[in-house]
Amino acid sequence: MAQGEIVAGFLAPHPPHLVYGENPAQNEPRSQGGWEPLRWAYERARKSLDELKPDVLLVHSPHWMTHVGHHFLGVRNLSGKSVDPIFPNLFRYTFDLTVDVELAEACCAEAAEAGLVTKMMRNPNFRVDYGTITTLHMIRPQWDIPIVGISANNSPYYLNTKEGLGEMDILGKATRRAIEKTGRRAVLLASNTLCHLHFHEEPATPEDMSQEHPQNYDGYKWDMRIIDLLRRGRTREVFDLLPQFIEEAFAEIKSGAFTWMFAAMGYPEIPGELHGYGTVIGTGNAVMEWNLVKAGLTRGGGVLARAG
Ligand SMILES: [Fe+2]
After folding, report:
1. Of 10, 99, 128, 247, whose Cβ has the fewest other Cβ atoms within 10 Å?
2. How far, in Å, is the centroid of ligand 1 from the Cα of 130?
């Protein structure tokens, strides 16, 4: 089997409002639109993803919370209805998805080998969380690429940020080894919002965009500082700033997906492509892409990928 590789990583946040704004057949509530700049950012990301032709999409979601260990979806077909507990008025989504169980098992085994507590999720009636579904729907609404879903152990909350993100670094590197060994052409999706300070009341019409703006100016400035560095490929600097950013902007990347993705990619110092930025109930959301093929960091690019 040819060695697999990661071809790209995306920062792909999951406000359910974006699905609500799109009015897909799978979602019950109807909207008049809303959050267009972010939804159009996802449209651009979809085009890139399509050109990459991955075998599998791996997503780490903060809203599949597992208190003991890092869990992996382990049932070939999962279907049902997923409801956002905070916004059931916006997100009641009928899902039907296919899991790359072989790769999920390899990720689980590699992470266990590296010392993490891991578990395969084998419940055939499992209700997949809205974070996983929103990110996947927004990046690939056709649902025609198998996925690997990874839970948030939330160790950065139970331990401390440094220790918890240390676990995510291990999980990322284990994910990379599993991808390489199973021969997959993989895309990683970090399902995270940046500044997570938000409004506590919803407008009467949730998609009334006259009410949508950053909840906190300092949080907005933090988002711009981080995005600016990411766009210039200054990855190391971003990770140096991460604990302070998390603390001051209540950034959702604390839950680990962002670190997991960068660890898996080998923390490349390459410019990220910003597809778009927008707020959702005041939180900051960026859709960004790190295309390792374009950067020449894949075997297809003629340069050996950096060892993770
Ligand atoms: Fe979230």
Report:
1. 247
2. 9
pLDDT number for residue 306? 42
Q: How many CB atoms are closer than 10 A to CB 102? A: 15
Query: What's the pLDDT score for residue 106?
Result: 98
Low-confidence residues in the chain, pLDDT < 50? 302-308
Residues facing residue 149 across a β-bridge: 59
Amino acid at 186: A
Q: Which pair of structure tokens corresponds to residue 74?
A: 């382990």
Q: Identify the pLDDT of residue 158.
A: 81
Q: What is the structure's pLDDT at 155?
A: 79
Q: To 10 degrees, the CA torsion angle through 132, 36, 209, 196? A: 40
Residue 302 confidence (pLDDT): 41
Query: How far apart are alpha carbons 158 and 146 in whole angstroms?
Result: 32
Token pair in block for residue 183: 């021969």
CATH of domain 5-301: 3.40.830.10
Q: How many angstroms does the Cα of residue 183 sit away from the middle of ligand 1?
A: 31
User: Ligand 1 mean position to 79 CA, how many Å?
Assistant: 21
70: which DSSP letter? Answer: E
Q: How far apart are CA 168 and CA 83, in angstroms?
A: 27
What separation in Å is there between the alpha carbon of 292 and the centre of ligand 1? Answer: 26
CA dihedral 154, 66, 14, 134 (to 10 degrees): 170
C-alpha closest to that of 289 among 52, 24, 27? 52
Tell me the CA–centroid distance for residue 49 and ligand 1, in Å. 22
